[in-house]
């Protein structure tokens, strides 16, 4: 027994080290555009506070909700102390914490080290495109802990898990308010199972019939002289009670050994509902006012989600990772004797709908689905158990650990080998040299730059007022408080659905910075060169001044 424990401890230590290396290898060196505005917004909050107005666009008096103000401030302080290197290291640390958390929680809930380890590697691989210096990386960690604490609270009803469940939405409301409503979705499968189990336990038809018989009996007794009818009703009621008892016994046996769906009425779920109601109130514990309750609704009312790539519906044929996961789940559900908790089925179904509706939700499907997949695989292994399976449950031997180490180190090298050549700022995507030229040669106090969405955040990071950046909600009328839909004007202009000259005139644009290979630049250089004075160009960007504009 002691030998097994030592082997399991050794495997756990090895798993944590290998997961950490794999997560670091997957963490990109080059930052995404959101990182740049995060730094600048954090600086503004640290120095000026949350004023509800945007200071970085040249559009006047735009309202801004600061939807992840806490993360912005933390990121700014890290940047202020350690620069871009500090942000990269912090992102690596968060990535490692996420990986180890997924492994540890799976291991605690499912009790299988090797399976939890392999699933963790798979999860981190699938969500690799979403590992970035963004607030979502923190919420990934919070959500996997939410699932763990929900499961443990239902199992044990211990107060420490309830406290954790209350802390999580409080953190989300201040770190990443956009996903605040999603937290409560995690409760719904467990609550739905409880209500369905309660309804299944109550034999509705028989209960109604019993009530009618009692009511008739009372009515007859009041009239008097109806002893025979009363006796007949009492006989029927007794027969019905016996029938109900038989049905209850039968259902009890079916619930203990169901064909496919495991339906459990856990009394602790009633207290889970109380916790959820308390958590709903944590949205008020933020300097953002009602934003936790209104942000998602306003976003859905606008058009930003219809035009941002990661918010668009998923096309399964184009996403091999999602397709493989769905096939795996369906194969386990259809072709094995697996018995499924109804809450797991609801959770999978809900996450699947979210993922197909918005491709970014593949992260939630993968992270939370890892626990369900682990539970499924473990049950299938027990159904078709062998000595090898038992050995797998106990941990791996030295040879197995050696093979795993070699494979994971090889994968880590494969994903991380190009990191030494990467830079924090990709000069092919962000106008680093063009920004230098602007700051040295153009009076920003008298200019209005038209820029594109993808690099607007970098420009405002450099202190250049922008037309638009990747804070899409800021430029939508639902949030900005303006009649103009700046975001939609940009979308129409960039796709040449609207003539860019009209947009320039509407917003009194004086200067333009654009990619050299953009549609707009090709039209300018081929047909309207006389209306634009080229001030600067490099390999990737070009800057124009619109003639006859002051």
Question: Which SSEs are present, and which pair or pack?
Answer:
Blueprint: H1 2-26, H2 33-48, H3 69-110, H4 113-126, H5 135-156, H6 159-175, H7 180-185, H8 188-201, H9 204-223, H10 227-256, E1 261-262, H11 268-280, H12 291-301, H13 320-335, E2 340-341, H14 342-357, H15 362-383, H16 387-394, H17 398-416, H18 432-441, E3 449-450, H19 453-461, H20 477-480, H21 486-494, H22 500-506, E4 511-515, H23 519-527, E5 532-537, E6 541-546
Parallel strand pairs: 1-2, 3-4
Antiparallel strand pairs: 4-6, 5-6
Helix pairs in contact: 1-3, 1-4, 1-17, 2-3, 2-19, 3-4, 3-5, 3-15, 4-15, 5-6, 5-15, 6-11, 8-14, 9-10, 13-15, 14-15
Q: What is the global morphology?
A: globular
Class computed from helices, strands and strand pairing: mainly alpha
Spatial sequence of strands, sheet with the most strands: 3-4-6-5
Number of helices: 23
């Amino acid at each position: 027994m002691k030998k097994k424990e030592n082997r399991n401890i050794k495997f756990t230590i090895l798993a944590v080290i290998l997961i950490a290396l794999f997560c670091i290898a997957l963490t990109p060196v080059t930052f995404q555009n959101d990182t740049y505005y995060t730094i600048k917004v954090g600086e503004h909050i640290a120095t000026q506070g949350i004023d509800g107005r945007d200071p970085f666009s040249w559009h006047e008096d735009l309202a801004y909700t600061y939807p992840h103000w806490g993360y912005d401030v933390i990121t700014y302080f890290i940047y202020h102390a350690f620069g871009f290197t500090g942000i990269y290291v912090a992102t690596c640390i968060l990535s490692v914490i996420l990986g180890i958390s997924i492994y540890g929680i799976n291991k605690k809930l499912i009790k299988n080290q090797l399976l939890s380890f392999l699933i963790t590697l798979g999860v981190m691989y699938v969500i690799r495109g979403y590992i970035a210096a963004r607030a979502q990386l923190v919420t990934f960690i919070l959500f996997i802990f939410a699932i763990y604490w929900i499961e443990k609270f239902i199992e044990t009803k211990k107060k420490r898990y309830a406290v954790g469940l209350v802390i999580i939405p409080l953190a989300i409301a201040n770190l990443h308010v956009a996903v605040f409503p999603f937290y409560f979705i995690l409760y719904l499968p467990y609550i739905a199972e409880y209500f369905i189990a309660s309804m299944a336990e109550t034999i509705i038809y028989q209960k109604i019939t019993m009530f009618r018989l009692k009511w008739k009996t009372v009515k007859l007794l009041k009239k008097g002289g109806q002893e025979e009818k009363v006796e007949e009703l009492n006989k029927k009621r007794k027969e019905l009670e016996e029938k109900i008892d038989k049905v209850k016994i039968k259902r009890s046996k079916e619930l203990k050994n169901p064909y496919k769906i495991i339906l459990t009425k856990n009394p602790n779920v009633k207290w889970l509902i109380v916790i959820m109601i308390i958590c709903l109130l944590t949205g008020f514990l933020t300097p953002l006012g009602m934003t936790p309750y209104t942000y998602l609704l306003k976003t859905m009312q606008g058009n930003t989600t219809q035009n941002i790539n990661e918010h668009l519906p998923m096309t399964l044929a184009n996403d091999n990772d999602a397709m493989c996961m769905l096939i795996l789940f369906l194969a386990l559900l259809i072709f094995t004797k697996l018995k499924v908790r109804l809450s797991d089925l609801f959770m999978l179904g809900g996450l699947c709908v979210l993922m197909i509706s918005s491709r970014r939700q593949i992260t939630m499907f993968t992270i939370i689905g890892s626990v369900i997949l682990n539970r499924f695989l473990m049950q299938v292994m027990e159904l078709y158990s062998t000595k090898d399976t038992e050995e797998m449950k106990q941990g791996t031997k030295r040879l197995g650990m050696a093979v795993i180490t070699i494979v994971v180190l090889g994968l880590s090298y494969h994903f991380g080998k190009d990191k030494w050549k990467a830079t924090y700022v990709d000069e092919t995507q962000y106008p680093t040299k063009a920004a230098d030229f602007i700051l040295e040669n153009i009076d920003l106090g008298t200019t209005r730059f038209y820029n594109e969405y993808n690099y607007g955040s970098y420009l405002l990071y450099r202190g250049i007022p922008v037309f638009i950046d990747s804070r899409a909600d800021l430029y939508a009328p639902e949030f900005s408080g303006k009649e103009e839909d700046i975001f939609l004007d940009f979308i129409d202009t960039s796709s040449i659905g609207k003539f860019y000259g009209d947009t320039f005139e509407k917003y009194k644009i004086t200067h333009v910075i654009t990619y050299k290979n953009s549609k707009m630049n090709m039209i300018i250089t081929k047909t309207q060169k006389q209306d634009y004075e080229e001030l600067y160009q490099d390999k990737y960007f070009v800057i124009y001044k619109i003639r006859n504009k002051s």
